[in-house]
Write the structure tokens for this entry.
Amino acid sequence: MTPRENFGSRFAVIMAMAGSAIGLGNIWRFPYMVGEYGGAAFIVVYLVACFVLALPIFFAESIIGRRGRADTFGSMQKLAPGTGWRWLGLLTVLSPIIILSYYSVVGGWSVEYLFKSLAFDFTGPDARIDGFFGHFISSVWEPIIAHTLFIALVAGIVLGGVKKGIETFTKICMPVLFVLVIVLVFYSLSLPGAGKGIAYLVKPDFSKLSAQAAAAALGQAFFSLSLGVGTILTYASYIRADENILTSGVATAASDLFFAILAGFAIMPAVFAAGIAPGTGPGLVFETLPFIFNRMGTAIPWLSALVAIIFFLTILVAALTSAISMMEVGVAYLSEEKKLPRWRAVLYITVFAWVVGILCSLSFGPLANVHILGNNLFDFLDKLCSNWMLPLGGFLFTVFCGWKMSKADVYDEFTNGGTKNRNLFRPVYFLIRYFAPIGILVVFVSALLFS
Ligand code: PHE
């Protein structure tokens, strides 16, 4: 058997993990949530949720993954042989594949929009944008073709392996992504009337803070940091023994947060400058922004075309680096547990997610009337994963790390054999063992009670 691959350097680890974390969650979900749940007040709750609840889960997954040195299922088997914990391993193989299937549909939308902006379709007097989004997502073939292109790109990168595929791609793309979004921020802030957008992001409205807002902040922190679904665990299993788990966790969380805030400043001022109400969900990015590019385009058409290209390229790259982390979880499982060659593992996962993705895509069109618990398939899977599977997975990972693994093993991993972060071990272990699992329970029970 070929030896297990590792990421080559600290930079590579951080870029891969940040690549997983930074995605559609930052670009459309975060700015919209901020507005919905009280602006800066929500950001404060989100920060707390990130650092005292989500980060401990990040450490728990990292510790389990690097100690187990295997895929999620294999790590559970190694660290708790013959116990029911292997089901957690299986659950966290399944959930990222489900997320991949509908995430790839949205990834496909960004492919389509990038092509459209390259064709100058969002600029000039004859821009064909009115009603385009609704028409596009409800049609049969175009979104399926775009989804196919997207998932094929993901498969191509994952096929290249951990080092040549994932590491190379994320090492190049993540710095580019930051440059792109910073360009967008400058552009957005320079628009007349941008001030209202800034106020929307920074003015706290504490009256909107509720149990729901706290649950939303927590769910957003999980989704945004890719927690509870085995992606961080799997990536951590490729971290070399001498790397510092604390550094990679804090660096990933900080860059994820920084990017979310940049994305907010890139989007909201433009939305307000154009006098458009901040819409919800994917609509904000795909429905509203093309209008803005067009309006701005009356003065300097090529500039607005360029901004549109940069914008949709940003979304595409961010979605790709996240999607590859979702696919890698299942690929690691199939190749290590089922001993499949990598190409076959990639093929199986791709075909599965592709087919489920097609159904999700059709659920905006011909299958719109097929409802599961009141939602179309796309929304059902999204809610199932973000509201239930991620928090459940995150909760169980902390319980596993805090209560099932021996304290000595956890100490050994977190401190690299007693050589690093020794002073921080006690507080972090406390967070993993008590604070994070109880905190997750409290937030969920109260959100259920008050909903
Ligand atoms: N963190 C990614 C985003 O913000 C989504 C993701 C969720 C990636 C779960 C991997 C696993 O878009």
User: Anything to note?
Assistant: The first helix runs from residue 10 to 21.
